[in-house]
Amino acid sequence: MASKTGGFSVRGLREWLEAPVAEGATAGRTKLNALRGAAARITTPLLPDDYLHLVNPLWSARELRGRIVAVRKETSDSVTLVIKPGWGFDFKFSPGQYIGIGVLVEGRWHWRSYSLTCPPDWTDPEHKAKRLISIAVKAMPEGFLSSHLVNGVAVGSVVRLAAPQGGFVLPEPPPAKVLFLTAGSGITPVMAMLRTMDRRGVVPDVVHVHSSRTADDVMFGNELRELHDKHPSFTADLHFTGEHGKFALAELDERVPDWRERDTWACGPIGMLDEIEKHWAAAGIPDQLHVERFEIERSATGEGGTVTFARAGRSLEVDGATTLLQAGESAGVQMPFGCRMGICQTCVVTVTEGHVRDLRNGNERRAGDKVQTCISAAAGDCTLDV
Amino acid sequence: MAITDIKAFAHLTEADIETLGQELDTIRRDVELSLGERDAKYIRRVIRAQRVLEAAGRATLFGSRNRWAWLAGTGLLSVAKIIENMELGHNISHGQWDWMNDPEIHSTSWEWDMTGASSQWKRAHNYSHHTYTNILDMDEDLGFGILRMTRDEEWKPINLAQPFANLVLAALFEWGIALHDLDAAKSQLGIPKDQWFSAPTKDFLRKAGKQVVKDFVIYPALTGPAWKSTLKANASANLIRNLWAYAVIFCGHFPDGAQKFTEEQFENETQGEWYLRQMLGSANFEAGPAMALMSGNLSFQIEHHLFPDIPSNRYAQVSVKVKELCDKYDLPYTTGSIGKQYLLAFRTIHKLALPDQFLKRTSDDAPETSSERKFAGVTLPAMPSLPAGSEWLAEHNWAGVDPVTGERRGLRSALQEAKVALKEKALHEKAVLREAKASLQEKARQEKDLLQTKAGRERRLSRILRRNR
Ligand code: FES
């Protein structure tokens, strides 16, 4: 309704009402925005959410949040986390996408990304048919957070969420012939695709070749078997590296003779993906291949590295003693700064990839952390949001 | 002239200052590495408490036509505003809680309940004030541009109005800060002072507008018939918060013993000297836990200036170690009751309203500012365990570590001894003066007598002459 009465429009009023919450919200627009905006005028400089989430942590549209409602063991070292998102979460993601999740451990929030394993708009009968999401996490030997999530996270914990993203997705409708090539926890985004196809009842000709060390290590093993039995067009082909060694791509011709005709989605360790890419390129069909490189959860690789300044589109090789501020300035990037000695916080920027180290105490910071560039140096390759 | 050479003033060698700096670095590292769940809980608890207090205050004011409800509501709101300003806004904007990586409790996103925009404040305060602490002409917080707080600054006739300006500043502190920060933001962007409308001004107006509308329009309007009393309550809560914030800031920087420095000192400053400047430039006041919370732990101003981004709840613990270092290096640790600290600042404000010719001390040995020259010409007692006239003593004068007792004689002893010596000198001067005065009087008397006799003689002579005529 765009009824105008003497320069006064309902839309204008609405925009005015929503203005205070328009900036702060990372979550999508909710129906309550006008109300929240009006309330923001009396809670200024805070948002009403700052009060509301004291009552219920999920009542915040300032930021996406969720609550872990179930932790289900998948294998000995992996779990599925079922999360009920709070206000503003968009359940219409594409199967194969990942979300950012922030978990509080010892007073500090840690950010990681994990693939969603559920179909869009998923409801779980166990939870009163509320819309939920799920991710699966495998504990990595050095992975601080993944170990925590697998072994220590409590049902009921509140987590922060970042909206689903990523281009490793299953198109709709899916292509007629599909090949999934996964290994280890690389199965997680593919699981969302399989579940979506199953739920929609549209399962084309799909072959899934999955590698894991032993049969017990297969995440979602039972479900793969069930899907295999339920849908004649779906073949789950498991390969156990403990017995047969690494899956050799040369075997593809034998196991999936028509692989060249299929649209392929591959996810797993970087080495495997590199080989696959080469193989597909050699076959002259690189655009039939979609790969997802999981960021490996590991600690800093060392001293120095290539620092990339994402927004400025520059990068520079530096040693482990050069501060990120110096690096940026010598690359001609407009870096914010004040004291240049770590006290004023003027120079804070977000690390979007890789690791950096706080030179004052050696603390490691990684993607998702905000760091003071004047006292931090690269610990391996890293990317900054500036 | 204020301190131009902090090494000489502190009675420390370059190496001493370097080790002192390393020891302070260790304190910082220990705290940083031990931060965890308990600290995070602390700040979240304070935030929760503050919001409950504020909500309770605002709610109570709906009944503010009743005197008791007015008092209770105003009290709650004042306390809420004070905590919000001091323990939350100030400290979070300093990045003290950035380690939690919590986007909602982060220096880059926090906005406070004051008229000034926190982005502008961060520039002026976190950067300018904390980097250039107490350096003449560089730290604009030194008197906030309207008060002469040290006799290093030249007296101007306007300073006569200082007692009044002080009252205005105290009552409207948030506005003082906001305008001060706006100026800083403009000068940083190279916008001329007299250009009124600019991007920083817009930011300022937007923020101040929201604040004013909230406290003076929306809330009163919401309480309907109680609008008048709510408005008064909101104004009172802001006033109380302003007075308190002002008092805390003044107690942290302007009591005697909080030193001032010159650009010369700053020019080639090492990290250790930076620490030392923060330590000597700030002052604490004694506070229990409640008072510490209400002052945003700025009762530990010295610790805050040494480590502005360490979580405030740790300052108490840090202060124990800082005091130990002060003992070790024989450095002063300026503190006192809040009343005493404020009175000292108050005295300076009023004293320095007067031109210098009315003041006795110079900027080298005044109570509010001194310099390394203060110790020149003051003869101090030799170290007791040293044979008088030994080489070592000659070389080091009287500073350093006594090789026999292992005790260090540094600034703190020097200040005490200088105080005694200065007192003695003053006494001596007084005595000399008294003597001089006495002898002058004596001389005057004699002259008078002489004159009288002379006059008598003349009178007699003239009588004789008249008779003989
Ligand atoms: S520039 Fe001041 S903290 Fe980095």
Question: Main attributes?
Answer:
heterodimer, A: 386 residues, alpha/beta, six-stranded antiparallel beta sheet, six-stranded mixed beta sheet, 10 helices, globular, B: 469 residues, mainly alpha, two-stranded antiparallel sheet, 2 strands, binds FE2/S2 (inorganic) cluster
Largest sheet of chain B: 2 strands, antiparallel
Count the DSSP helices of chain A. 10
The protein's oligomeric status is heterodimer
Biggest beta sheet attributes of chain A = 6 strands, antiparallel
Detail the poorly predicted runs of chain A: 1-6
- Give the overall shape of chain B: globular
Biggest chain-to-chain interface with counts = A-B, 35 and 50 residues
> Structural class of the helix and strand makeup of chain B?
mainly alpha
Beta content of chain A comes to 25-35%
Specify the structural class of chain A. alpha/beta
What's the arrangement of strands in the largest beta sheet of chain A? Answer: 6-5-8-3-4-7
- Give the strand line-up of the largest sheet of chain B: 1-2
Any idea what the shape of chain A is?
globular
Count of β-strands of chain B:
2
